[in-house]
Amino acid sequence: MTVEYVDAGEAIDQGDLSGNHGTAPPVVEGVTYERILEARSEPQNWLTYYGAYNGQRFSPLDQINTENVKRIGPAWVFQAGSSGMIAGASTYAFEAAPLVVDGVMFVSGWDGWVWALNAATGNEIWRYKHATPYDVSLCCGNVNRGVAVAKGKVFSVTPNAHLIALDATTGKKLWDRTYGDVRAGESATCAPLIVKNLVIVGSSGGEFGVRGHLDAFDLDSGEHAWRCYMVPKPGEPGSDTWPSEGQAWARGGGNCWLTGTFDPETNLLYWGTGNPAPDFDGEVREGDNLYTDSIVAIDADAGEIRWHYQCTPHDVWDYDSISECILFEHEGRKLLGHFDKNGYFFVVDRTNGELVRITPFVDRIDWGNITRDGKVTPSRYPEKEGEPVHFFPGPAGAKEWTHAAYNPETELFYVPVQDVGATATRRRREFKESIPYWGAGVQVDIEDMTGYVSAYDANGEEKWRWRAKLPMCASVLTTGGGLVFAGEPNGMFNALDARTGEHLWQFQCGSGHHSSPVSYSVDGRQFVAVPVGWGGWAEGFLPGMLGAGHGSALMVFALPPE
Amino acid sequence: MTSAQERSDLMGKLGLNVQNRAAIGRLLNSGNVGEAKEHGDGRMTATIRINPDELTWDPQILVMPHGGDIELELINDDQNTHCALLPSNGDRKFIWLVNHSRGRATLNLDGPGCYWYSSPTGNDEGRGLTGAIVVLGDVPPEARLDRPDQPRP
Description:
The structure holds two protein chains of two kinds. Chain A is mainly β. Chain A is built from two helices and 40 strands. In chain A, strand 21 (326-330) and strand 22 form a beta hairpin. Chain A is globular, with a radius of gyration of 22 Å. The relative contact order of chain A is 0.14. Chain B is mainly beta. Chain B has a domain at 32-138: Sandwich (Immunoglobulin-like), CATH 2.60.40. Helices cover 5% and strands 38% of the residues of chain B. Chain B is built from one helix and eleven strands. In chain B, strands 2, 3, 4, 6 and 9 form a five-stranded mixed beta sheet that branches. A four-stranded mixed beta sheet of chain B has the order 1-5-11-10, with no helix packed on it. At the A-B interface, strand 1, strand 2, strand 8 and strand 12 of A face strand 6, strand 7, strand 8, strand 9 and strand 10 of B. Chain A: It comes from Pseudonocardia dioxanivorans (strain ATCC 55486 / DSM 44775 / JCM 13855 / CB1190). Chain A: Residues 46-356, 473-528 form the Pyrrolo-quinoline quinone repeat domain. Chain A: Its cofactor is pyrroloquinoline quinone.
């Protein structure tokens, strides 16, 4: 006898079973380029990755201040943990900077997640999940650093190198463009940047011997506007810094795996570029290897490089210069501040790339020396095959990708510092697409390490230092309340006095910090939000904490309700 | 030591190809391989079954010729209740599969690579009901790097 099957129906969205889904108010509809230009005139919002185009990570909000910060506590928590299989299961981390628009928060997670949340209560409004291949090449963990918003859309990159545009009210996909080749080892992790009618994104994959690039798309249609490669082809400007024979340039790295800054007066994008490939075997790529490890100024309309400043010519330590380029004015000059992985704080004239000042910002630097006029002299590096070489700082740098901040009221920069060394042993290997292309065996120290938050003025003078037990691996935030917020790998979230460095408050968040906190307000109540979730490339920046538990919580703090 | 050619024989000898002989559950991805069918209109379809007492998907590795939309027929011939949580752009797709049931799922997978899915319900996890959908093909030409063809493994 044949028994009829029970009709199980059609599979449904998993989010329909979350108990929490709906439609967001159309707050993003009115977010335009003009509003993002004046983002800090809307202190209740955090409209773009760094809070403003200048990259300062400064919130003017002052309801929470040095006097009352000791009274803040958790207002709500969003737990983003998920069921089922994810790509690179052991390496996920919560690394985003949330955006907030008029009471709605937009935040991305690992593995292709994007959420819209009620910024006052933490309730989930909608979710989007991009299907991520388990085997996509993720050099530094299954992570994403944030979204962009404009004209009714939320933009995000995916681990498999797509740029997607979502309807900000529903989370439904409006368009989808592939801008990287996963079979070549490319991926994507950065938060997009909106400039004019463009959405600008960089590629990841510098450990796989790709050719780094920055791409711009029309934010309405998704039409590709331009691509700017960070390694020149033979015959192009800068190509004389690569071997004239062979294809080292084609595998040269220089990825733009973080978000840049923008000055509307110069019409220049300021982007940091990644390491050359192979990371540690410089003999196969003789020369300075432009435009790797550089601050690159790119015309926002043409997508062409106008000037560059290379922080580590011919890098053999994995010292990406991807860190933020913070725009500020000092003594009538338009300047740019950049804390590099190589341990030096660079101040550059952002109109022309002229070096203004170089200052070391970590105690232990022995890979080489950079003089005040910018001359670089390497001293310790993996030169001979099979011979281990120890150097400071290690390949995660004296500051990893996590961001410094600048407070225009104190006129101080605040930098999270990692003082950790590493040993690299050169091991040459043949290049093959999609296979890691380091050219060395590398082990980062698990002992004799420390960290701190330091405050520097524009002249490179250290004004104060707050010492932590472990390297500081999270972005800092500074506010109009005279505060600096800084998370630690052990889960502590701290508030410091921005003028003195005095420790004022802390809270144990239950997992290490490796993200970018932001501040915003809803109905007059100020909040400080920090994604918490240890993981990612921990073996690179802090292997001594490789065994610490993962987390996936977005913690939001505020003063008690009146 | 064994060679690839001897793998199937050795799996059987060691009991790695069934439930609760070598391992407790079914070894991941030790089941069948199948190909999705591509129709003239570009649609892709496939049928995936759960056979009695195997606690594995059949096929356990489903291969799509390229990225795009695929319509799956999911059949539970087992005498226990299972479910499926499947990858798809937008949100993962969930379906409850009681004993002797048949359901459908439409997935969108946009690029090359290996995607996992599973039956995330009590009694199933770790027992073998973890499957793979492998998407063949390359990214669009405009997304590829401007460089000469490079060697691959």
